[in-house]
Amino acid sequence: INMGYDHSKMLFYKDTGEVSQEVWDVLLYQMLGKSNPSDQQALYKAHMSGDLGSKQSLHNKYYLQTSAALLNHVDNFLKQLDKLSEKTNGRDLNVHPRLPMIRKHNEFVRRTFLKVRENL
Hints:
By secondary structure, the chain is mainly alpha-helical. The longest helix has 26 residues, at 63-88. 71% of the residues lie in helices and 0% in strands. The two termini are 24 Å apart. It has 5 helices and no strands. It has helices at residues 21-35, 37-49, 52-61, 63-88, 99-119.
């Protein structure tokens, strides 16, 4: 999707669980591609021309659908993270010396996703 966004801005904020505007925009754009191509084009045009009013109107119109899709993504990711964490149990740290760091990282990601989930 070429909306002029840098992929590094597609994020969730770790301290607050807020979702970046870029994530909301791309998610809505993808959803509209499947359900309403004319609104997808309107979103793209509004975004590229800086028409924040029209863009926000489309976000408001589809908020329930986009928030449900994002919640589904978060829940699926948390399930995958749980499965990965389970695989680390009982592993020999002599064979896998980076495992403690991986576990800490996974727990950090999990906490972030749980904060996002609370906001949805």
